[in-house]
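G., the chain you wanted modeled:
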Amino acid sequence: MHKLVRVVGRFASAVDGTPIGGPAYRARLFDKDTLSDDLLSEAVPAPDGSVGFTFDLSEASSADSPGEVAPDLYVVLLRDGQPAFRSDVIPNVSFFGRHPVTGMEIEFTHDLGVLRVG
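Predicted structure as tokens:
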């Protein structure tokens, strides 16, 4: 299944809530798997801490999770190339559903919310 999906979030200090972002940072979105985690996307968080990832859902499918369409997501934040934060794993993230009125399939952007670093 080739389908582009989107994940968004915002990095902030766990101490005082100030945004964390800018060119010193790089965020990586992964799918947790049994044998080897899949790197799905990378992005540089904006100075306001916001980050957005877009990836093809087929990238979550691998030898240890063939046909996967609801990946187990987590984010790693790097500062100057070194790990500064790793989120908890969010299991079975679904990007599709049915519109409550029309019944047509709709796509969702998954919002990670505020990721507290520190």
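Strands lie at 4-13, 25-31, 38-43, 50-56, 73-79, 82-86, 96-98, 105-107, 109-117.

Shout if anything looks off.
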